[in-house]
Amino acid sequence: MPAAHPLPLTxxxxxxxxxxxxxxxxxxxxxxxxxxxxxARLRSREALFPGIVGYEDTVVPQIVxxxxxxxxxxxxxxxxxxxxxxxxxxxxxxxxxxxxxxxxEIRDNPYxxxxxxxxxxxxxxxxxxxxxxxxxxxxxxxxxxxxDVTVADxxxxxxxxxxxxxxxxxxxxxxxxxxxxxxxxxxxxxxxxLPDLAGKIQVALFNIMQEGDVQIKGYPVRxxxxxxxxxxxxxxxxTARGKIVTPLKDRxxxxxxxxxxxxxxxxxxxxxxxxxxxxxxxxxxxxxxMREVVEQVAFSAREDKKVDKRSGVSxxxxxxxxxxxxxxxxxxxxxxxxxxxxxxxxxxxxxxxxITGKLELEYEGEMRGADVVVRDLIHSAVGKIYDRYFSExxxxxxxxxxxxxxxxxxxxxxxxxxxxxxLKQIHGLLDKLSPLGVKPKDSPHAVVxxxxxxxxxxxxxxKLSRSEERVxxxxxxxxxxxxxxxxxxxxxxxxxxxxxxxxxSGYN
Length: 508
Prior knowledge:
With about 500 residues, the protein is of the alpha/beta class. The protein is built from 23 helices and 14 strands.
């Protein structure tokens, strides 16, 4: 295998290097570079954004079109929709190495420098000018927009100390201290939550995007920057009624809408990819129905009227929830010296703190309390996934056992062997687990997890009741009031109001 050609270290070596001497590379802009590398990836059918799930037919084609059109673009979406991850993944469309004039703050092109310092240096040293190299990651600059960001932060400011030391006039380019945008020259500059920038900063930004110049302390400074600008924002803010300056909005080429996973399966794939599940202690086995329930909690929250739709429900909710239920199962395995950590439904209730922190509630939800809302969401999620497996299962024998006075307690601290001993007392229960692919003689962990899911699903469908101490019992009116006092009270008030109104209505 031939040895790799050493990288040129001077401008003269760079001019004669077979790797960097092509005429097309000398004047190619960063958008041309991204377009060229994207075309190569499309032709080779290489994955454009590895790890991004569910956007293959929606978001990714729009991003491809924007890059092929050499446009700046913005990703509009609620929190937890992988906007920042997509923007950071754009570096894969940059060249592996990019030469620049060594020591330059704005990574000047050796063939066509734009800053005065580099122009003077090339004029003085010529082919002996030193060359350095940027990696892909070095060419990505990201800024979170906040109201306190200034023009100096973003574009730059005049440095009187530089002027004094160099005996320069303040209007000279040599007196400028460059901000983040010039330092992203020949790379990608990303601004997250764009509308949070103050109006005057947005004006400075669109002016430099369009004309390449900006006024700093009254001095006009022209910066012919070569930058691919990408942004992210919440759709609620990115409107004329929001906080975006219309001329800036007009100068952004494409508005690309992101979204949450459209199916449970897509959500499961994302959570499995992102959640830390392999701990290196006890082996961990997560059953499919648990993955579905965790994901359904997020789907139910996005549909619930008590949850703020403008804030959204981040995909981080099922990710952090999955990590917590695995930790709960891991804790149980460690305490009881069990060979396997096997998450079950009781572990989901132990993960309440990870769910409540991810939800912004409407007024109605705040009145009920976050814990109550989350328990209702879990209750609803279990019921929906239960229907996937047990919609045609006859549970009358199980219900009869409870009606005859049977009770069983299952919680996240209980050892698997003890839980299995209690569950075996319930007539017909273990024979009903076949829709989950579980048989009575299978692993105790699988049997206990599946049986608890079946019982919890029966509670969700009001075939059984369960106390806050996780004691399962027969369903009756008193237990229904205990489990759902708000629902029962609202129903009774509605009934009273209906009877009252019916007494007043009619023909006289």
